[in-house]
């Protein structure tokens, strides 16, 4: 009997959180911020019901039949996403966003970084953040582009 090749799979889980924010860059004047971000620069902010899909990848364990235990992934997502972000003002309640504009792109990076600290090394594949039905950001850990 020949040994069976390792099978790779991707496993995804989603959560939804509610948060408010204001798109505003400290590097721009009030006029420039208003021109760039429009109504999303409202001084009182605005909110979203964000949907986040986290995908991990790895070998299917021959004993458990899983890439990762979903209960563990759920707990990691609770700690990395729900606890710091749900029902928060991103700009005022999350220290990361005191110096980083709270765009959906940067929310995805924040979530990626939080998950990287918790998950087994090399298993995180993708973080997908749906700000609205029409606006989606996908981040796969690409940190920089050489220019």
From TrEMBL:
One of its GO terms (biological process) is tetrahydrobiopterin biosynthetic process. Pathway: Cofactor biosynthesis; tetrahydrobiopterin biosynthesis; tetrahydrobiopterin from 7,8-dihydroneopterin triphosphate: step 1/3. Its cofactor is Zn(2+). The keyword Repeat does not apply. Keywords: Lyase, Metal-binding, Tetrahydrobiopterin biosynthesis, Zinc. Binds 1 zinc ion per subunit. The active site is at residues 40, 87, 131. It is an enzyme of class 4 (lyase). This is 6-pyruvoyl tetrahydrobiopterin synthase. It comes from Sinosuthora webbiana.
